Amino acid sequence: MKLIVFWFLLSSLIIAESLQEKGTRISYENNNVNNGFHSQISNMTMTLINAHKDRVSRKMIFKAKEVENDGDKTLITFEYPLDVNQTKLLTWAHKNKNDDQWLFLPGINRVKRINSSNKSGSFMGSEFSYEDISSDEVEKYTYTFVQDQQIASRDVWVIIRYPKDSKSGYSKQISYTDKQYHQPLKIDYYDRKDELLKTAIFSDFVLYDKWWFYNQIQMLNHQTKKESLLVWENRKIGVLVKESEFTKRALQ
Amino acid sequence: MYSIAIVVLLFFNFTTSIDAVDFQFKGESEIQYRVFDADNDSATQDTNLLVTNQAETTFTTKTSIFKSKLWLQQDSIDKNKSAVIIEKLYMLIQKDSYDVSLGAKILNWSTLEAFHPADVMNSKNYDSSFKNPVKIGEPMISYSYYYNEFIVGVYYMPYIMNPIFSPQSSRFKTSQLHVGSARYFNKSSEEITNNQFNQIAIKLDHVLNQADISVYYIDHIDRSQPIFSVDNLNVIPNYFRVKQFGFSLQSSLKELLLKAEYGYRKFVGSAPNINPSDHSQLALGTEYTYYHQNKFESTLFVEYQVIPDVSRVKRASLGVFQHDLLVGYRLNLNNSQSSELQWFVFKDLDVNNEYFLSLNFSQRFFNMIKGNIGLQWVYSNTNQSIGFQTIENADFCYVSTNYFF
Asked: What is the per-residue pLDDT across A191-204, written as a single tens digit (0 to 9) for each?
């Protein structure tokens, strides 16, 4: 009897480890497939929808540049509402440490560093947090493969990812990643109490050269019933974005 | 010479606009209604309507960017408060590893909210705002070189822009006497009469482990701390050649944001009967942001500034803020109207019972209008005309609307 229990425990352990390895392997493979586009520019519209379905829009210009052996550099320039026009958010994402983030305030021509340690703050009053908006580096999580599944007739890998950073607003995220696009179709976000907080639904997939990009994320907050919609338009891939644009000096 | 430079830059602006691949325009018009405490001074107005307008254009071509920004102020009653300021009028050529700009620019090297020992460039319009006076664009050639996480900036500024002081009719005047034209001194008693002086600055920026570190050297006519003298019943602001070096720092430490600014000023010039003292100025600050469950954001600020190596009396003559503590709080409701409440309290640490309070609530309406309501209040029981005492009679409350276009 003891031998059977021992073999059961040992085999369970082996299976658990292999699920982690499989989750990690798939996530890193997806990351490799999605890398190499060099840089991108697009127009972003974020729509805030309250529980009464009232809508408010924000418009931004999004620029991103890949960095070898580190996270992407991104620059978001706000255009609308007009009182925040030309306010800029520069992020240097890192794989193994907190991101560097700066905010340019055009009214006083000042560049201010943002403390990126607390990631759960709302991005422009939306249901997206700074953590959701920043570059999704694969090294920031540990992974466990759950199962193969189908969502809307599409094959997906279901993988649980656990943020390594204790300051993350999430205890875990369950990702449903499309096997053709190598991009998520859906992510369920669980808060620190391990209760379902938000769901992101990714859609409008377009093939640019050899990379699939989603052009819409619908973020639904299950606790407040509010939602936010993020839409990309006029996306250009591989365009030359100057390195100097992603410096805090250039923000001014 | 300055007028010729403006015409040349406007010509570049025009030619750039023909070739522009992108054009951006933004503007802001603010109407502020202010009510001051009665001061029993017939020269001043206790109630007024102040209108300020800003317009900014950006032309981008394949090779360069041309920026201009104009700031205008007009008072409904007091015509002396009218001002037109060129904040930006420059051409920028941006490459992958460097950029070069030519024209009038505003530099902001500050890291703290209230105290700015490292942010000493540009003249200011002291009649615009007590907390954040509007800066005046200074003509310059600047070159920045980018290498990994280092940036080296070199600046050459050949022309001194005159600061603007509050007229006698303003409630923000710091003296009962008329403020005369500024005087600039190069070497001992050698006055610069045509505003032309070769000023230079070098700044090195580095990003290191969640910290922004900057070191700088400036050789210029320092406009951050005028030294006043009296001449024929006029108060004269005197400015001197200063060689300043220092640093600034912004760093994340767990949930805190730590900030520091330092400058050491060595005066090269002096004026008859005025011998400014070399001194250093240090400001330290921290900021803590707490994110509430309901998306509200609370930020607490604490800042401290001191000029340590001069006497208390001399320190007091160097400006309104010389040895002070600031405690501030900002509540961002993170709603669709961007509602925000903030208050700041300054305490003069050299004088008992001297405080400055600023309170403001703002909210956006219809995506293009922002409303503000607030007050500014000074409590002081000293009778010296230094520090906060200089504006003790300028307590006021206000309501304003900003229209963005």
From this structure: 999 999 999 999 99
pLDDT tens-digit series, residues B67-110: 999 999 988 778 778 899 999 999 999 888 899 999 999 999 99
Assess A39–B contact: CB distance below 8 Å, yes or no: no
- Residue A169, pLDDT above cutoff 80: yes
Q: Are B101 and B91 in contact (CB under 8 A)?
A: yes
**Is B51's pLDDT higher than 90?**
yes
Positive/negative CA dihedral, B12, B15, B16, B17: positive
Joined together, the tokens standing for residue A228 give 């936010």
A200 CB-near residues (< 8 Å, 6+ apart): A132, A184, A186, A187, A189, A217, A218, A219, A220
- Cα-to-chain-centroid distance, residue B232: 30
| Cα–Cα distance measured from residue B197 to residue B175, given in angstroms and rounded to the nearest whole number | 29
- B308 Rama class: left (phi>0) / alpha (psi -120 to 50) / beta: alpha
The DSSP result for B356-389, as a single string, is EEEEEEEEEETTTEEEEEEEEEEEE----SSGGG
Q: Model pTM?
A: 0.86
Q: Name the amino acid, one letter, at B212.
A: D
User: Which of A124-133, B45-54, B252-261 is the most confident on average?
Assistant: B252-261
- Residue B233, amino acid: L
Q: Which of B341, B405, B334, B348 lies closest to B378 in space, CA to CA?
A: B348
E strand spans, B76-120: 83-94, 98-105
How many beta carbons lie within 10 A of that of residue B29, not counting itself?
Answer: 15
Q: How many CA atoms lie within 13 A of B117 on its CB side?
A: 32
Q: How far apart are CA B82 and CA B22, in angstroms?
A: 33
Residue A106: is its pLDDT beyond 80? yes
| Contact between residue B235 and residue B269 where contact means Cβ atoms under 8 Å apart | no
**pLDDT tens digit string along B293-334?**
888 999 999 999 999 877 777 777 676 677 899 999 999 998
HSE-up (13 A, CA, CB side) for residue B204:
8
CA angle B203, B207, B208 (to 5 degrees): 130
Lowest mean pLDDT among A169-183, B134-148, B373-387: B373-387
Which residues of A are less than 8 Å from B107 in CB distance?
109, 252
- Residues B277-291 have a mean pLDDT of 93
CA atoms within 13 A on the CB side of B265: 28
So what's the pLDDT on residue B217?
98
**Distance in angstroms (rounded) separating the CA atoms of residues B8 and A251:** 26
Q: List CB contacts (< 8 A) between B335 and chain A.
A: 125
Start-end of H helices in B283-334:
312-316
**A108 vs B contacts (CB less than 8 Å):** 108, 132
pLDDT digits (tens, 9 = 90+) for B151-171: 999 999 999 999 998 888 888
- Residue of A75, A113, A130, A168 for testing the chain B interface, max B β-carbons within 10 Å: A113
pLDDT band at A125 (very low <50, low <70, confident <90, very high): confident
Instruction: Determine if the peptide bond prior to A106 is cis (ω within 30°).
Output: no
Closest residue of chain B to A113, computed from CA coordinates: B250
